[in-house]
Each structure stands twice: as C-alpha cells, then as structure tokens.
Specification:
The strands form three sheets. The protein has a six-stranded antiparallel sheet with strand order 2-1-6-5-4-3. It has a five-stranded mixed sheet with strand order 8-9-7-12-13, with helices on both faces. Strands 10-11 form a two-stranded antiparallel ribbon. It has twelve helices and 13 strands. It is of the alpha+beta class. The two termini are about 75 Å apart. The chain has helices at about 5-15, 30-35, 50, 65, 110-115, 130-165, 175-185, 200-210, 210-230, 255-265, 295-315, 325-330; strands at about 20, 25-30, 50-55, 75-80, 85-90, 100-105, 190-200, 235, 240-250, 270-275, 275-280, 280-290, 320. The protein folds into three domains: about 5-125, Haem NO binding associated domain (Beta-Lactamase); about 125-165; about 170-330, 2-Layer Sandwich (Alpha-Beta Plaits). Helix 8 packs antiparallel against helix 9 and helix 9 runs antiparallel to helix 10. Mean pLDDT is about 85; it is low at about 340-345. This is GGDEF domain-containing protein.
C-alpha cells in the first residue's frame, strides 16, 4: 500500500470529515463523513471555496489566502441547503502544495445528524460528539418520559377533581360542583337564573318499590333535565331528590318558565322500572340574579327555596318565580341548603 493510501486510511478513521485540497483549492479527496454533505455527487474535483463560504476570518477568497490560515480555527457555512455552519482547521498536507482541512459541526451537530442521516460510525471513535449525542438522546428520552408522566398526572388530577364535583348516581354536578359554578357566575357578574326543583311523591317510590327503583327514577329525571337545558347550563343534584339548575344568560321569565314547564311535564310521565310504574312529579322555584343589588349564593338559594315552597303549597307540579311578597308571606326566607365543604382533591 502506498504512503498516500495509508495516509487516507488513517484520516478516514481519525478524521472522517477531512478534505485534501491541491495548491489550487480543488478537492482531491473527501473523507466518508465529509462526502455525506454532498450525497448526490462527488466532492472530488470541486473547488473548496465554491462549496464553503468562510465567514471568519474574513476576505478568504483565494487558495493562497486559505493556505495562510493554517492552524487557525475557521468558521464556515456550507453553501448548499440546509446551509449548516461548520468549524474547520487547515494544515499543510504531506505532499508539496496540499492542504488538509478537518471539518466539524460544532454545536449544530444535533441538527446535522438529522439533516445528513449520520450515525456513530460517521465520527471518530474518540470524538466527544458521540458522548454528546448520547447525552442529548438521554435528555430527550427523559424529557419525553417526564412529559408523558405529567400528562398522566394531569389526567388523573382532572379525573379526581371531576369525580369530586360529580354525583356518582346521576352523573350531574353534586353540591360541591354547583357551589363552585355558582361562585364563578357571581364573581363574573353574569346574569343567570337559579331554579330549585325537587320531586313530589318520591319517598313513596322508595318505600313501596325499593331504593333500586328510586335510583332509577333519579337517573331518568337527570336525563330529562339535561335534555331540556342548553350545553352551557348546569344541572346539579344537591340532595336526595333535590336539584338546582343554573341557567346562564337567560333574562326572560317566559323562557325560564317554558323550561320548567317542560321538565315538570316530562317528569310527571310514568316511569317504568322492571315492569312496575313509578309515578312522581316535580315542583320548582326560580329567582333571577339581576333582581339583586348584591348577589350572594345564600340569598339566591334561600329565595329559590321560598319560591319552591310556594309551588308545593299551591298543589305541586308548579313553577313559581320568587318575589318579595312571597318572602313576606313566608315570614322570611327559608333556610337555604347547607353549603358543601371544599372538595378534598
């Protein structure tokens, strides 16, 4: 093997990104990794300064000027897309007039690996780039694992919070969920209606047909209520057979009364459970947030309860709007539903 061939073999292993130039700046030989920068054609016979733009030091435009940079770190940019920045150092070659240039990607190596489909075999065995690539890979894997864990934890947190705010039997909001939504509506200054509704004769269903029948009735009533309100309204089961509906952006009593009337009519229809008929009805009372100078949850719930009591006293299956006259007649507002404790999540 000639000394020239031996030199090439040594450089291919120790400096796989090297180039050997003649005195005129033509590329005589390209290491295997350097050749990957121009995969569709050979670098041999191309002028170095036609392929690479020397950014520092400046004013390097001739082979003679290039030769004078021997031993100085060069900052290059490959003229072909994706125009990767490279580092280089030039030394005189073993033969007269030759120049050997060793190239490096520097900190852009991570992107270059993807651009040129490089592997560990494309770098010298002792090149610290390999270690850096392993560290980058390990960091990426760790970050992805962390992201997946955070997504799972976030999903678990949301699920736990949702469970804490939901009624397990009906899937409606529970009292905690209703309290939270009511507090948000008040804090945002929205106009809304609060309707308190409960079932008539529900105790008779539980006493004569059992709790399974009662649970089934509650589930059917919940389905009816959800079907009669809009997607941005809230329906909550706040007690055994008690429900609160928060109807947002509704300021016309006629529309609210139509919603209540439809629910009352549908709930009054016989509910079939295991071949037996369950007969219940419902009564409702409503108050509007816009009727108060200062809106508080306790006041709204208390006044809606007063209106509900009036519906029951008028024979049930009724819907009544709260008014000051009702409070006077009832001797003051009824005791509102007990406030729920903050959910423990």
């Amino acid at each position: 093997m000639s000394s020239s061939a031996q030199c090439h073999n040594v450089l291919n292993v120790m400096c796989p990104m090297h180039l050997i130039l003649d005195r005129d700046g033509l590329i005589l030989f390209a290491g295997p990794t350097a050749q990957k920068l121009l995969p569709d054609q050979s670098m041999i016979g191309r002028r170095f300064l036609e392929l690479f733009d020397i950014k520092r030091p400046r004013e390097i435009s001739t082979p003679e000027a290039l030769r004078e940079t021997a031993g100085i770190k060069l900052h290059l940019q490959f003229r072909r897309p994706p125009h990767r920045d490279l580092k280089a150092v030039l030394m005189e070659g073993p033969e007269t007039g030759q120049m050997i240039i060793n190239l490096s990607f520097g900190i852009s190596v991570v992107d270059a690996v993807q651009d040129y489909k490089l592997t560990a075999a494309d770098f010298a065995p002792t090149d610290l780039t390999i270690e850096m690539l392993y560290l980058v890979e390990a960091k990426s894997a760790a970050m992805e694992a962390s992201r997946q864990l955070n997504r799972r934890l976030q999903g678990a947190r949301v699920a736990a919070e949702e469970q804490a705010l939901s009624d397990t039997l009906t899937g409606l909001r529970n009292r905690r969920g209703m309290d939270r939504m009511l507090a948000d509506l008040i804090a945002n200054g929205e106009d809304f209606a609060l309707m308190h509704m409960d079932l008539d004769y529900f105790k008779a269903v539980n006493d004569t047909m059992g709790h399974a029948a009662g649970d089934y009735v509650l589930q059917q009533v919940a389905r009816i209520m959800l079907n009669e309100v809009r997607s941005h309204d809230t329906v909550a089961r706040v007690g055994g057979d008690e429900f609160v509906l928060l109807l947002r952006s509704v300021d016309r009593p006629k529309v609210i009364d139509q919603i209540a009337t439809r629910i009352i009519a549908r709930v009054s229809e016989p509910i079939l459970f295991e071949g037996q008929i369950c007969n219940v009805s419902s009564s409702a009372g409503t108050t509007l947030s816009r009727h108060y100078e200062v809106v508080t949850a306790d006041q709204l719930l208390g006044d809606a309860d007063v209106a509900l009591y009036e519906s029951k006293s008028r024979g049930r299956r009724q819907h009544t709007f709260f008014s000051e006259d009702l409070r006077d007649q009832s001797g003051g507002a009824k005791t509102p539903l007990p406030r729920a404790q903050a959910p423990q999540i």
